[in-house]
Structures are given as structure tokens and as C-alpha cells.
Design a protein that fits this description.
Number of strands: 0
Helix content: over 70%
Order of helices and strands: HHHHHHHHHHHHH
Distance between the termini: 20 Å
Number of helices: 13
Length: 259
């Protein structure tokens, strides 16, 4: 893989991680359609590298909220901060259990672009379903955080968007659009961290050329991810979240003819 290819895939990752169009699905389809092969066959390691980039983008974008929450956890008046942390932990459990239990099976889906394209179509219909939900301003609770966590576990499959499935579930649970998006992005932090930790051994086997290529992908993913978060926060509050469903259906159906 050339540096230009890494930059292109990093851009796709950064934009599609926080827009509800499946980053893993787009990386899989882009690699298949454009023949972008990761050097040394380290496709999974490259995906983890660009996920590190998007992790940095969410940490930077929500740095004030994260700092306030961290301070509140140890404060006498930090009940809301402790609730948020509790909800994030609960929401992370389903994905952790599924990821650890079915790691090999899930990886098999990444080798099947046609299945990825089909799942992207399904993702589109999930997004469109939010158009039938009336706006509400309910806040998070233990039940909603668990259900959103289950939706996040489903997004381990390429083609199912993590942000799309979690935000859509939150909206169906009557969580406010802004609250749904913010919780979805914060929920990404422990999931990406966990994936990085589990893949540390894979990075140790990379050579200097691979590390350089992966670094380019991660940097581009970080910058584009930061921009995508800001864009997404505005779009969901404007009620335009479901329009991404049309894109996913068209993109997935089109990809089925070429992969």
C-alpha cells in the first residue's frame, strides 16, 4: 500500500466512523473496489491504526466534556458524571462480549465484500426508520444504555454503522437527538481502546515501511474524523440524520453489482 492509498483509506475511515455509514464497511468495499491491499496482509492492523486516529478526534472534540466528567466522578456533586460513566460502561459490555466470543467469525465477514454491501443496505433501512420517530427529550438510563450497547455490538459487522445503529436506537428510545449523538461518540472511546489493546501484538510485527504508511492513515483519519463529528452534531439536530439511509441503500446496492 502506498502512502496515497493509506491517506485515502484514512479519509474514508475518518468521515465514515462518525457519519452513520459504516467505516468498516466502506474500508472493506473501497479496498475491494479499488484494489487497495494493505502491505504484508495486515488489513486488520491497518484498520486499528486508522481507528486510533478517530479515537484522537473524539478525545479532542469532546475534551472539555471528558475533563468535566473526569473531575465530576471524584466530586461530591458529581452524580451526573458518575451516571454517564456508568452508562458508558454498561453500553460497552455487549460489544466486548460479542467481540471476544466471536472474533474469528466477525473477521470472516471482512473478507466478503458482497455481504458487507448487503449489510450496508440493511443499515440504510435502519437509518430511514428514524424518520417515523417523533422527537423527544428523554435522558439516558440503565435500560437505554444497555439497549444502545446491544446495537453497538451489531455494528461489529462491516456494513452496519456503529454511530448509525447506536444513534438510531437512542432516537427510537426517545433520547434527544443531541444526547443520542453525544452518547454514541463517547461510547466509541472504550470500544476503540479495547480493540487497540487487543492488537498491540500485531503492531509489534510491523516493519518501518508499514508503520509509516499506517501513521499517514491515522493522521488523516484523525483530522477528517474531527470534522465529521462537528458536521454530524449539526445534521442530527437539524433532523437530517435519516438522509444517510438513502445513501447507504444506494451505495450498498450499487456495490453489490461490482464486488
Amino acid at each position: 500500500m502506498a502512502y496515497w492509498d493509506a491517506a485515502l483509506l484514512g479519509l474514508i475511515q475518518g468521515l465514515s466512523e462518525f457519519l452513520p455509514i459504516s467505516s468498516s464497511g466502506h474500508l472493506t468495499l473501497a479496498s475491494a473496489l479499488f484494489g487497495l491491499n494493505v502491505v504484508g496482509g495486515s488489513a486488520l492492523s491497518f484498520e486499528i491504526a486508522v481507528h486510533i486516529g478517530t479515537l484522537l478526534s473524539v478525545l479532542i472534540y469532546f475534551r472539555k466534556r471528558l475533563l468535566t466528567t473526569a473531575q465530576g466522578v471524584f466530586s461530591k456533586d458529581g452524580a451526573e458524571s458518575r451516571k454517564l460513566v456508568r452508562y458508558i460502561v454498561i453500553g460497552t459490555i455487549p460489544a466486548a462480549l460479542v467481540g471476544l466470543s466471536f472474533k474469528d467469525s466477525i473477521q470472516g465477514f471482512f473478507a466478503d465484500p458482497a455481504m458487507t454491501a448487503a449489510l450496508l443496505v440493511i443499515n440504510g433501512f435502519v437509518l430511514l426508520s428514524t424518520g417515523f420517530v417523533s422527537k423527544s427529550n428523554k435522558t439516558m438510563n440503565l435500560k437505554s444504555s444497555l439497549l444502545i450497547g446491544v446495537a453497538q455490538a451489531a455494528a461489529l459487522l462491516p456494513g452496519i454503522s456503529r454511530s448509525g445503529s447506536t444513534i438510531a436506537t437512542a432516537l427510537h428510545l426517545k433520547i434527544s437527538p443531541k444526547g443520542a449523538a453525544e452518547f454514541s461518540f463517547l461510547l466509541a472511546i472504550p470500544v476503540i481502546l479495547g480493540a487497540v489493546i487487543l492488537s498491540v501484538g500485531d503492531f509489534a510485527a510491523l516493519n518501518e515501511e508499514q508503520l509509516g504508511v499506517f501513521a499517514v492513515g491515522a493522521i488523516v483519519a484523525s483530522v477528517s474524523g474531527y470534522m465529521a463529528i462537528g458536521w454530524m452534531m449539526k445534521l442530527i439536530e437539524a433532523g437530517k440524520f435519516l438522509y444517510f439511509g438513502i445513501y447507504c441503500i444506494v451505495a450498498g446496492a450499487t456495490a453489490l453489482f461490482f464486488v
